[in-house]
Design brief:
By secondary structure, the chain is mainly alpha-helical. The chain is built from 17 helices and four strands. 69% of the residues lie in helices and 4% in strands. The protein has a two-stranded parallel sheet with strand order 1-2. Strands 3-4 form a two-stranded antiparallel sheet. The two termini are 32 Å apart.
Length: 391
Amino acid sequence: MSIYKIPIIAAFIFFPIISLIFTLPYLIYQYRKYGSIPILRSLIFYSFILYLLCAYFLIILPLPSITEVAKLTTPTTQLTPFHFIKELSQMISIDWNKLSTYYNLLKNQSFYIVLFNILLTIPFGVYLHYYFECKWYKVLIYSFLLSLFFELTQLTGLYGIYPRAYRLFDVDDLILNTTGAMIGYLITPIFLWVLPSRKQLDQKSFEKGVRVTLFRRAISYCIDFFFLSILILIISIFTYKTKLSNYTLLISIIIYYLIIPLIIDGKTLGKIIVKLKIVAKKEKKHVKIRIWLRYLLSYLLFYYQFVIINILNSISSNNKIIDNIIDRSIDLLKVYFFLNIICLIIGKKKEFLYEKITSTKNISTIEYETKNTKDNKEKENVRIKKDKKKL
């Protein structure tokens, strides 16, 4: 069993790095589709990534040295289907009519290799059936392709790193891995005893997606900052060595936070991606002006020192009056920042100061049909009970 510890430990070491790569696309996808990220859904998704990492490292580790592989003369392929049955029958004395002789299988290492290849992809079939809702033929195709990827990884000597294959490309592994995934597909209803169905997961996600969380808004801010950075780069190219070069950031902010929301109904690109929209709390006059004022007051916290201070310095450098204005304005900005935090913490509605001033709020634009929700829940529960009875 110790031979399996190294691949699993390696998978856990690389898991945070791989997860980080997938996190932003995952967050964007979830907010785009559901408007929320429930903990259980995230645990299932990231456990799937961890499982794939473990499976991958189990088929490539431990890695031999290149000099050892170069000296190998063993075959690189085994293309006879079900050769493992013949191999087991030759190595183990089994009378198929006597159950007592089956115990001899447990004493042979070749049997455990066969068992390992089946167990390796059982979780893959479960994930495809339960979370991704794949039909049996899709599970068959995807599991075969996964196994083929594993075998080609070995056949190519880890994509050319080694001079030849250091493990055998075995057609029986394709058969056993695919069989394991199909077993996983068939036993998936067992997990419905302890886990909600995929439809129930989606329903809870949609219900949570109606609410606007601070984390969701923070993701929107980050996306906006990314697109704003691109806009700044483009404008800086066009304004290079011109009088407007000192006002690049100001022009970019006006375009991104004032002009674009005017065109696309009070939304920035970040809010579109995470399905948010700024609206007036009540039907009042000057809604667009209040939305613009909100953007000004909210992003003032982040961009003031870069925009206003840069402009003041460009007007007059080494001027005591200007320097005094800058110092006092920074002090006021700090006070404004803390007032926003205080309003968020102690306020009943948990909103920032600039939201109170402008009487605006973020709403979710997730389209979710709440009608007949109880009927849908009952139908889903009936279906789950039928699946459990089949077992």
